[in-house]
Amino acid sequence: MDRLLVLARHGQSEWNLKKLFTGWRDPDLTELGVEEARRAGRWLRDQGYGFDVAFTSNLKRAQRTCSLILGEMDLSDIEVIRSQALNERDYGDLSGLNKDDARDRWGDEQVHQWRRSYDVSPPGGESLKDTAARVLPYYIETILPRVMAGDRVLVAAHGNSLRALVMVLDRMTPATIAGLEIATGIPLVYRLKADTTVLMKTVLERDIDQD
């Protein structure tokens, strides 16, 4: 049994490019983001991966990434399940602000805490701990049973919703999760054991010039 779980952060969004806090705001992908998603699909296809079901968030940058990946793999007709539980963390009052402007206003250390710490939330928004409180139950109740039943599963979501998952899968701590950055458009490939822990992890990346 495969027990295949692939996590993919969406490609670059219009607000990533502008260095804006995005959260639950809903910008689309840039041209680069579209190519990142397509390239991820080609990598997965060329390595012989396939999927039976895909999960994504309620936000268009993740949904479009999911669609582009599956399109490159000729899998556009598989089941795709959307859920708000996989949305990016809510950045609250920071949403729409430029990150450099935020650093000028509140200082580098405070903004870094808001972005990377486990349990410090921005004003009016969610911490990573808060994000995990909705992502992990959804993973345990809805996604994991599909993986354990033998379905090959793609999750196309966001930097922080995926950080919450990776923290559990990779057995990271609140201290070590601060240093984790999940790149846009680079698939993380997991194979799980029968006890749901990780058997093997691969970061699927190769030189862009090879495409």
TrEMBL record:
Active site: H10 (tele-phosphohistidine intermediate), E88 (proton donor/acceptor)
EC number, as in UniProt: 5.4.2.11
Catalytic activity: (2R)-2-phosphoglycerate = (2R)-3-phosphoglycerate
GO molecular function: phosphoglycerate mutase activity
PANTHER family xref list: PHOSPHOGLYCERATE MUTASE (PTHR11931)
Assembly and binders: Homodimer.
Protein name, entry field: 2,3-bisphosphoglycerate-dependent phosphoglycerate mutase
Organism name: Methylobacterium oxalidis
